[in-house]
Amino acid sequence: MTSRHFSIETIGIVGTGAMGRGIAQIAALAGLKVRLYDTNPSAIGAARDYLAETFARLTAKGKLDQARSLAALANVSGAHAISELVDCDLVIEAIVEKLDVKQALFRELETVVSGRCVLASNTSSLSITAIAAACSDPSRVVGYHFFNPVPLMKVVEVIDGLRSDPAVGDALMDLARRMGHTPVRAKDMPGFIVNHAGRGMNTEGLRVAGEGVASFADIDRIMREQAGFRLGPFELLDLTALDVSHPVMESIYHQFYEEPRFTPSPITGTRLAGGLIGRKTGEGFYRYVDGKQQVPAEAPAPTELPKSVWVSKRYPQAHEAVVKLIGETSGVTLDDGAVPAADSLIVVTPFGHDATTAAVDEALDATRVVAIDALFPLVGAQRHTLMTTPATRRVARDAAHALFASGGVPVTVIRDSTGFVAQRVVATIVNIGCDIAQKQIATPDDIDLAVTLGLGYPRGPLALGDALGATTILTILRNMFSVLGDPRYRPSPWLARRAQLGLSLTQRDAADIQPETQP
Ligand code: NAI
């Protein structure tokens, strides 16, 4: 390519399924001319009908004025042959997810379009560099990864292949903004940003379930109500469906050469084989009756309060928060002795350790030890998580449950786990986000933007780590790693360095961002 300026007014969309028609919708509404092409001619008609209905519905709801609706529809035309894409400034493919088929399409497109036409792929799992390698001009090939449903998921990843001209990506960043989307820029690495960052929640959620720590529903409740996510890992997997999620989990794991952070779980393979695929088949991790998720009810909390409670001072802030919580919610006596009295319930507040390790490290009577997760603020919490050692007696477990539920906040009691549920899932999410930054796949700001918009998390992984304290996240991971010896939990250097230096996880190296001044 010789020209480095790209004026994009006419777009070809090849593949008019779920993604192609969504992209067509936002492009036509932004005033771009859109040509639809699909090897299945009926898919083109179906996409036009769909767009006509969608624009009419938006108009009826008052979300779109009549004139704009008519103009948008008039912008869309069908192409009977691929040769009709000849005058396109950009062609976006959203066809079947197969490398050889996409390569063949791009080779064919090169014989049709002008030398100034940009070629973009909506692939979510293939390498842009590999697709471009089939082209005589790989510099004009980029990734343009939208999310489903396109009009509602207002983020798009712009992916530079190794030979992509940066000006091509720049032009697609501008175009995304014109279409009302937020673009983020990513390197050509497996999963790009969003599908890479999303490994934390589902693989760690599956690992918690696989260790027998808690039920699927309990893990979801904790992630929603305690950690503040919109959906827990199993609700999310039911929504995306295992026929999609399971192969993605395996593919990203293998593409990173069996990186332990991404290890999938045998749970999903078995459930997929058994047809427990998700919401769309009526049964996944939950059952669905008339489309409604069936959630097993929680057992009522016990009511027998402990007479006295001793709270570990190993983590002073957590000690203070637990004492405050107990003070607010019940009239039980606080045992403030250096060691617990013989009849006191013993509460520990580990970070990344299991209740057993906390009990042993602090030389406590494990039969009376119950741990509470104090990563998120306890006062004002929507849910508390408690866990027991294998030696904890039922009377201690139930007394702790009654105590922490007495203020009306629901409590989930789990089995022993390094990092409860929320700590380990959140720490894994932050750690993977940090690794994406470390690998320079995207800027810290783009990582957080992509994750909040693409995954609907309340905060991006780096901002989440900052909010909870980078040193706390580092402690959780180091402790998990020391107990389990599993390299999955080794802290990302991005996290470890910034936590130790007291820097924000969103900060790039200072030398890269500060203006040059005399030392
Ligand atoms: P889809 O199955 O709904 O639509 C694909 C369309 O492409 C069909 O109409 C088919 O007839 C047509 N097609 C297949 N091969 C073709 C060829 N060689 N030339 C022209 N047309 C061809 O698929 P969907 O869900 O729209 O996905 C399309 C692409 O978008 C895939 O690459 C997928 O990985 C990617 N993607 C999908 C997302 C999703 O959630 N569905 C999210 C992000 C990316």
From TrEMBL:
Residues in 3-hydroxyacyl-CoA dehydrogenase NAD binding domain copies: 10-188
Presence of the UniProt keyword Oxidoreductase in the record: yes
Pfam short name (any one): 3HCDH
One GO molecular-function entry: oxidoreductase activity
Domain of life: Bacteria
Record bears the keyword Magnesium: no
InterPro entries the UniProt entry points to: 3-OHacyl-CoA_DH_NAD-bd (IPR006176), 3HC_DH_C (IPR006108), 6-PGluconate_DH-like_C_sf (IPR008927), 6PGD_dom2 (IPR013328), NAD(P)-bd_dom_sf (IPR036291)
Entry EC number(s): 1.1.1.-
Domain (3-hydroxyacyl-CoA dehydrogenase C-terminal): residue spans on this chain: 191-288, 419-502
Keyword vocabulary terms for this entry: Oxidoreductase
Gene3D superfamilies: N-(1-d-carboxylethyl)-l-norvaline Dehydrogenase, domain 2, NAD(P)-binding Rossmann-like Domain
Protein name: 3-hydroxyadipyl-CoA dehydrogenase
Gene: paaH
